[in-house]
Amino acid sequence: MRTVLGRPDFRLLFGALLASMAAESILLLALAIWVKDLTGSDGLAGATIFAIIAPMMLAPLVGWVVDRYPRRPFFVAANLATAALLTPLFAVSRPGDIWIIYAVAGLYGLSYLTLSAALAGLIRQLVPVELLADANGVLQTVRQGLRLAGPLAGAALYAAVGGWLLTGLAMTGFVTAAAVVALLRAPEDTPADGGSRWTAELGAGLRHLVGQPALRRALLGYGLGSLVMGFTESLIFAYVDQGLRRDAAFVGVLVTVQGLGGLVGGLFSAALVRRAGEVGALAVGVTLFGPAALALAYPALWLGFAALLLAGLSLPLITVGLNTLIQRRTPAGLLGRVVAAAEALVSGPQAVSIGAGALLVGVLDFRLLFVLVGVVTTAAGVFLWRGRRLSAPPAPSVPRIPLQRRPAPAAGSEAEPQVARPAR
């Protein structure tokens, strides 16, 4: 991590993302708590996350747009647009206004997809290939580390003064990120001219994902896990309310504990990628989510803390493994479409599972649903682990030793055989 943070251009980008990630960490959970507070419904609170993920169906269009513009100015504009779309939240004051929260959540989901696609290309542009895992690991360490204070601070601020202050702080974070990235001076990649038909360009990202065996395996396994992982967005409210008998704001405490696990996972994610490969790191992350969900089937505070630590540990391993795999296996001009398509393929099943979870939590025992999540995610992790050799870590390179010139053989003597130069 020291190596990648030693690069001035990446440090500047890191500072910008620190501001935007802090804004995100205090806002996302607060939106769900806001809905829970206005309606008293666990299902409606979980549906807030569904609203954020639903725009993933527009991923091919978003990726196509991102790939048509230079990364840095597009990233700046997208951050400013994200700050602007949060302004309607200032009008929310009663239960009838929850549609505003859902509308903003949907627009924010679209913005998140856009920023993710642009960021992947920006990192690829700034960082050498051999440091991509370290760069992704640093960002995930900070993102998960912010869960230690961000959600808890967001919940506390919401309880004290309401949602308007959270909205203002989040807007400030995105504006700050835009201002800092605007100072970045990096060579810009020339966007593709788009010589082929636009319909073919929209599907180029999906075709690339399907055509690469490692990417195909990664998305199949993670997509399987995502079919049930989204249940937890609603289940966690039922766990706190029905299981622990605590107020909805206590979810912020649990997410903070999850952030501690995420901080540890972020610190070790790059090392795991180098040791087990990208698919191997993804497999470990998905598998760890299984026992965490199974532990939450028994409502006990100490066990809940242990489960959330384990779940937090799994998330950066998943993200760093998948992001690094995509960045390494994708041409720069196609990266926006591939990242957006991957987000859609993973978030599509997750959106379905969030919606299903919001419905099922009102009909079935939340403990039974946690058991289902644990079993399916463990099976998905085993499927991924069996394909880990598709992205095996590269063997250490052997330094080239220059061959010394030998004097020409004397006349009449037998020439020595040529020594082949070792392949790199």
TrEMBL record:
The principal location of this protein is: membrane
Q: Which GO terms describe its molecular function?
A: transmembrane transporter activity
Where in this chain does the record put each Major facilitator superfamily (MFS) profile domain?
8-392
Topologically, how does it sit relative to the membrane?
Multi-pass membrane protein
User: Segment Disordered: which positions?
Assistant: 393-424
Q: Which GO terms describe its cellular component?
A: plasma membrane
Q: List residues traversing the bilayer.
A: 12-35, 47-66, 73-93, 99-123, 219-239, 251-272, 279-298, 304-326, 338-360, 366-385
Keyword Disulfide bond assigned = no
Pfam families referenced in this protein's UniProt entry, alphabetically: MFS_1
* Top-level taxonomic group: Bacteria
Which controlled-vocabulary keywords does the entry list? Cell membrane, Membrane, Transmembrane, Transmembrane helix
Keyword Protein transport included in the entry's annotation: no
Localization recorded for this chain is: Cell membrane
Name the UniProt record assigns to this protein: Major Facilitator Superfamily protein
Top-down, what is the taxonomic lineage of the species of origin? Bacteria, Bacillati, Actinomycetota, Actinomycetes, Micromonosporales
